[in-house]
Amino acid sequence: MKQLKIFFITVLTFYFTGSLLHAIPFASVNNVSPTPFSISLNPNVARAQPTPDRDFGDDWIIYDDGRPPWFFYAREDYWSRQWFTPHSEFELQAVSFLAWNPHESESPCNVYVYSENQDTHDLIERLWAGRIDIIPPFDLDHPEDMWITIELDEEDYILFEEGENFSIIYGPAPGGHDWEEDGWWNLFDRSTEVDRSSVCAGDLQDEHDQWDVLNGDLMLRANGEYVGVDVAVENLYSSPGQWIISPGSEMSYTALIANPGCDVENVEVNFFVLDEDGNEISELGMTEIDGMESEEEIEIEIEERWQPEEIGYYTVQVVVDVEDDVFEDNNVMMLEQIVVNPEVDPDMWIGYCRDEPSLLMEGHEDNGWITAFSHPGGDQYICITGFRHYLVNFGDDPVECRFVIGRHFVEFNWTDWLVEFNVEIEAE
């Protein structure tokens, strides 16, 4: 039996002040106390797109993770803003966002599109304005249906150049310090890697430094169409679906190639295997696609099988090559493959985090975090023998932290909590 230790690393700050962030208790989170950092595994919610009144443009610019629970910003009369950067020439056609209206507030909402200074992000010119007379009441049971969409008239479509930043702003949200008040609020996700979302109270401010940056991404999306050639690798997966394998395993790989841009005549797809240092050690094959229509997706499976001989860390890489591609950042995808010998080394660690922790995590009293771990694939049994954590207590006294380990059944959206224990964290 292979034993697998879980590597769990997070940062908790136990010095709490009055928080402006509140979580929405979505019904899709079962058997877990709804917290700002709990995770919904409802597959019907993730990346759900708004339902349009007409056919939307083919492309979206999205920075949120698409999954509840979400925060709202507990202030009064504030504006919400997110700046967008198209990776090639982009025609803006519609704006979609989520807003939290639990008590059928009848306050209206203005929506603006602004050009901005490309260096400082100060607002320059209002390019378009729209208005929603009433924000619809929010249905907790069907958050995927709550997207609010404003479509630009065709004569109002806005064309942005490659890399040209622009901002979408909506508000003012009447808000309030508690979600039971009679107002509506913005919604944003649990964390951010891009720092594009911000708020400002009172009058709408032109200077970017007058906006408060949110520790999350607004549920705000731009719709339209990219102009030009753009072929991308959408997915890469192995057969039999394992990422921890043993020497001699016969592995096959399939890539999903997508064409969100215009029609193209020829696409070249290459598969490689890289060692831990990034050196190419094997070329698994090349396939040519004889033309792709716009929005077409094609699965490419390599004929050659990879059989690793030595234990170690490897990466399977797929690269697409097409002439005049306007955005090459999506031309490569990698899949980690860890080769181990359970008979020689039965213990190993698994984790989804950097070695260096971040201390920029906002805490909220009586709430916590959840990390989900997936089976590495195959039919081997896994025995959890321990876990690691990183906790920081900035208070004056020791703090007791509760840990719970459970097994989640995705098909039933239900968790069986197996182990619960407390750890005392000494003050720094």
Short description:
By secondary structure, this protein is mainly β.
Rough shape? globular
Radius of gyration: 24 Å
> Secondary-structure element sequence?
EEEEEEEEEEEEEEEEEEEEEEEEEEEEEE
**Arithmetic mean pLDDT:** 78
User: What is the CATH domain class of one domain?
Assistant: Mainly Beta
Strand order of the largest sheet: 10-9-13-6-15-16
Topology record:
Blueprint: E1 2-3, E2 5-7, E3 21-23, E4 59-61, E5 71-73, E6 76-84, E7 90-97, E8 99-100, E9 109-116, E10 123-132, E11 148-151, E12 158-160, E13 166-175, E14 185-186, E15 197-201, E16 212-213, E17 220-226, E18 232-239, E19 244-245, E20 252-258, E21 267-274, E22 280-289, E23 297-301, E24 312-321, E25 332-339, E26 349-350, E27 382-383, E28 387-388, E29 399-409, E30 414-425
Parallel strand pairs: 1-27, 2-26, 2-28, 19-25
Antiparallel strand pairs: 3-5, 4-17, 6-13, 6-15, 7-11, 7-12, 7-17, 8-14, 9-10, 9-13, 15-16, 18-20, 20-23, 21-22, 21-24, 24-25, 29-30
Textual characterization of the structure:
With 428 residues, the chain is mainly beta. Among the domains are: 54-226, Jelly Rolls (Sandwich); 232-339, Immunoglobulins (Immunoglobulin-like). It is built from no helices and 30 strands. It has strands spanning 2-3, 5-7, 21-23, 59-61, 71-73, 76-84, 90-97, 99-100, 109-116, 123-132, 148-151, 158-160, 166-175, 185-186, 197-201, 212-213, 220-226, 232-239, 244-245, 252-258, 267-274, 280-289, 297-301, 312-321, 332-339, 349-350, 382-383, 387-388, 399-409, 414-425. The strands form 9 sheets. Strands 10-9-13-6-15-16 form a 6-stranded antiparallel sheet, with no helix packed on it. Strands 4, 7, 11, 12 and 17 form a 5-stranded antiparallel sheet that branches. β29 (399-409) and β30 (414-425) form a beta hairpin. It is globular, with a radius of gyration of 24 Å. The two termini are 40 Å apart. The model is unreliable at 1-21 and 25-54 (pLDDT under 50).
